UniProtKB/TrEMBL annotation:
Residues 1-25 form the signal peptide. ANK repeats lie at residues 299-332, 343-378. This is Ankyrin repeat domain-containing protein. InterPro entries: Ankyrin_rpt, Ankyrin_rpt-contain_sf. PROSITE patterns: ANK_REP_REGION, ANK_REPEAT. It comes from the Bacteria. PANTHER family: ANK_REP_REGION DOMAIN-CONTAINING PROTEIN-RELATED, PALMITOYLTRANSFERASE HIP14. SMART domains: ANK. Keywords: ANK repeat, Repeat, Signal. The keyword Signal applies. The keyword Repeat applies.
Length: 527
């Protein structure tokens, strides 16, 4: 099997998806079907063993197969692509993906229970594994009708696993055969216990937070700096409780129009602080909570908008929405030109532009709690109509973010709609202009985005690739998928001209072993 194009990018992003950065030598192919192999294997290691004839469906006990070992032990979900692509080529995909484990558990049950990170669930869902799979509901001796989301909610680190499943379409209210919903599964000692409840059990949320009113005030609080990001970045629940007792006002604003809730939403290390601020308002006047959640700062951002754009805590997002913040609210128009880029945007648009390490988790929680990826912004002046996916491509996303967003938006529909913004640019235009990695381009193309779509400037994603790509395989993929690579726009701009101006793609291979991008183009479009 020729995996040259796929594997050229797998190694470059494997470390980005890895849970551990420690480099270890992978066991040889003799150990292929073991936990030890997949605990350190790279996508190339897996491909090499498959090329040597490694079996995808060995005659072994349930859950003792390469896919089960990979889901449990791999540090990167990219190895799943190698396994499942090979299964497809061998005409074994159905058997590999849907082989039953012990007690009838599916591969998604295993991912929910034992995977190192929630990206494994995203990968399986995008390869059509069933995230609503159940144990055998007809066997009274088994934990019948338990779905992956029940298992994820029981993990001590289950918050992002539950959020991922919800974002992918799992039902947060489904009951097991014994009447247990996912909200009844979290461990009471779990650090993410209440945040999981925020995801799953939003009814009567104020009553669920009443215990916070008994927080012990800490007189060491620096209340003079209460209305600042620095205060909330280090404040404890007790310090906030003390400042509120000393007369700090949660609805007061700073010079930028930010309230304490804005600062807590974006910077609080303890998400319970958000609950405490809103609980105190609720106890004074229940209607004041809605006002606080909708209060816009000078940029036009509500606390949820502010947290999505500048925050570092996905659990804060869950708490705000549990209190009633609207995940699809548009930021109001602001007259000042410096704020025009954020005009008419939703929290999901803004999260796509978040530059913190928490962006992927924030996007996941927003999608899990009702944010719509199909909403278009309303910036006007011919620059609107963009979806969150457009903004995400500008921000050079990883493959995990891209796959999650695509699955949520299109859920199996190959041809996305709407395709373009007001300037007729698609997400693939944005991605190729930003020179994103191969895996992101591949995910967009697989979803049905065309390298040949023309924007209002008569530029195509293929032309952007010729101009901006620094990875030959990106241009090669776009060229391979193009149905009209020889097109020249009205200004006379052509692919050869753009390649000539690209300092990376215009270089020759001194060994003569690799076909240059221009030669590949000429093979499709002879001069």
């Amino acid at each position: 099997m020729n995996r040259a194009v796929n594997l050229s990018f797998l190694s470059s992003i494997a470390l980005l998806a890895a849970v551990s950065t420690g480099a270890q030598a992978s066991p040889g192919c003799d150990a292929f079907n073991t936990a030890a192999f997949f605990a350190t294997a790279t996508p190339e290691d897996v491909a090499e063993c498959l090329d040597q004839g490694a079996d995808l469906l060995p005659d072994t006990a349930p859950e003792d197969s390469p896919l089960f070992h990979a889901v449990r032990n791999a540090t990167t979900p990219l190895v799943l692509d190698v396994l499942l692509d090979e299964a497809l080529e061998r005409d074994q995909l159905e058997d590999v993906l849907h082989q039953p484990g012990r007690l009838g558990r599916s591969i998604t049950h295993i991912a929910a229970a034992e995977a190192r990170g929630p990206a494994m669930i995203t990968w399986l869902a995008t390869r059509e594994a069933d995230i609503r799979a159940t144990y055998d509901c007809n066997d009274a001796w088994r934990p019948s009708c338990t779905e992956p989301i029940h298992i994820a909610a029981h993990r001590s680190d289950g918050f992002l696993f539950v959020a991922t499943l919800l974002a992918l379409g799992a039902d947060g209210t489904v009951s097991t055969r014994f009447g247990l919903t996912p909200a009844e599964m979290p461990r009471t000692e779990s650090p993410s216990h209440w945040s999981i409840h925020a995801l799953l059990d939003r009814e009567d949320w104020p009553e669920k937070t009443l215990g916070l009113n008994d927080a012990e005030p800490d007189p060491n609080a620096a209340c003079d700096s209460f209305l600042t990001p620095d205060f909330f970045a280090s404040a404890t629940l007790g310090e906030v409780a003390f400042c509120l007792e000393q007369g700090a006002v949660a609805t007061a604003t700073d010079r930028e129009g930010n309230t304490a809730l804005h600062h807590a939403a974006a910077h609080a290390a303890d998400p319970r602080i958000i609950d405490l601020l809103l609980l105190r308002l609720h106890m004074q006047a229940p209607e004041s909570v809605a006002n606080a959640l909708q209060r816009a700062n000078q940029t036009g951002f509500s606390p949820l908008h502010h947290a999505a754009r500048h925050g570092t805590g996905p659990e804060a997002i869950a708490r705000l929405i549990a209190w009633g913040a609207d995940p699809n609210a548009l930021a109001p128009p602001i007259a000042e030109p410096r704020f025009s880029a954020d005009r008419g945007t939703t929290p999901l648009h803004l999260a796509a532009r978040n530059t913190s390490r928490a962006r992927e988790a924030i996007l996941t929680v927003l999608l899990a709690m009702g944010a719509s990826p199909t909403v278009q912004d309303h910036r006007g002046e011919g620059r609107g109509g963009r979806q969150a996916l457009h903004y995400l491509m500008q921000s050079r996303p990883n493959v995990r973010e891209t796959r999650l967003m695509l699955h949520k938006e299109f859920a199996g529909r190959r041809r996305p709609s709407p395709l373009s913004d007001d300037a007729r640019a698609t997400a693939l235009h944005f991605a190729t202009h930003a020179n994103v990695e191969h895996g992101v381009i591949s995910a967009l193309v697989r979803q049905g985005f065309s390298p040949d779509d023309r924007d209002s400037n008569q530029m195509t994603p293929l032309m952007n690739g010729a101009r901006f790509a620094t990875d030959e395989t990106v241009f090669g993929l776009l060229l391979q998928e193009s149905r009209d690579p020889c097109w020249v726009n009205e200004a006379g701009l052509s692919i050869p001209a753009l390649l000539a101006g690209n300092p990376v793609l215009s270089r020759d291979d001194p060994t003569g072993r690799t076909q240059t991008p221009l030669a590949a183009y000429r093979a499709r479009c002879p001069a």
